[in-house]
Model the fold of this input.
Amino acid sequence: MEDLTYHAKVLKVNENGSILVQPIVFKEEDYQDEMLLHTGYTKMYDRFGNKLDAKSLRKDQWIKFITGPQMTMSLPPQLNPTVLYEHIPMLQFKAEVLKIKDKISVKVVDDYGSFAHGKLKLNFFDKPVLFNEDNEALKISDLEEGDTLDICAIVSFFTHLPLIEIYRAEVVS
Done:
C-alpha cells in the first residue's frame, strides 16, 4: 500500500511530542476526524527546510505529513508519520461569492486573522473541492452568487501576483 499525505491543522501539542490534528478533507472518502500523531521517529522540517521539534509547533498552525496506510482503531486514530512539514502559507477565510464563471470571484468577509482581504478570484486544483455543511460533495454549478464559503487555501507566488489555490471550500450559507 502507498504512503498517504495529509494536510492538517494542529489542535494541540502534547508534552510527549505527540500532536493532535484535524485533517483537511479533499474528497468525501478522506478521513475527517481528529488524529493523534506520534512523532518520536518523524523527520520534521520548518518552512525553510530546517529541522523542527514537535514542541515548537503551536495550536492552529498548518502542517503537512506523510504516513503509511496503517492507522490504529483507537479514538482518535493514531499515526506514526515518516515526515512532517510546516505548511506555510496556508489561509483560512470566509468569503461571499460575487460572480461564477470559469473562476469564482469572491469578497472576503472574515479573514480569520490571515492576510486575505478584498475581492479575489479563486483557482481550484484539478477539480473543485466544495462541500456543504453536511460534508457532502458539491459542484461549482451548485453555487449561487451570494453564497458564503469557508475556504482553506494556499498562496502560490509563481507570478508577480499571488495566486490563491483552494484545497477545500465549504458552503456555510
Q: What stands out?
A: The mean pLDDT is 81.
